[in-house]
Amino acid sequence: MAFHYTTEYRLGRRGTVHRTYGGLRALLAIGFDLALALVFGLIEFGLLAAWFGVVAVYRVAVWGVATAFKLAVALLGLPLRLARAVSGSGSGSGRAPAKPALALFEDF
């Protein structure tokens, strides 16, 4: 099995350059090409991992702030709800309950 490597690239106004390697030079060119692909792939993976990390930290921070705000509102509203429950326990509207007509002794 013989190694064979062909590449083509443009150099601006100079036109297109064609390179063809065989044997040991082709093996070295293939190895160099794979090494560069690995390096740039690892760089891209690192950048994507960093980006997803930033997004994850942002979402956790937003969730934490929203949860803390909801908790603060609930805790600050608790005394008000407790005061309403205690003051409204004797009657529904806060006024004295209406007495029936027989209990007023106005008809006698």
TL;DR of this structure?
The chain is α+β, with helices and mostly antiparallel strands and 108 residues long.
What tags apply to this protein structure?
membrane; 2 strands; transmembrane; rod-shaped; 59% helix; 1 helix; transmembrane helix; alpha+beta; two-stranded antiparallel sheet; 108 residues
Question: Any overview of this molecule?
Answer:
The protein is an alpha+beta fold. 59% of the residues lie in helices and 13% in strands.
Write the layout of secondary structure elements.
Blueprint: E1 4-10, E2 16-22, H1 24-87
Antiparallel strand pairs: 1-2
Summed up, the helix count is 1
Q: How many strands in all?
A: 2
Coarse morphology: rod-shaped
What multimeric state do the chains show?
A: single chain
- Identify low-pLDDT runs: none
Keywords: Membrane, Transmembrane, Transmembrane helix
Transmembrane segments: 21-43, 49-78
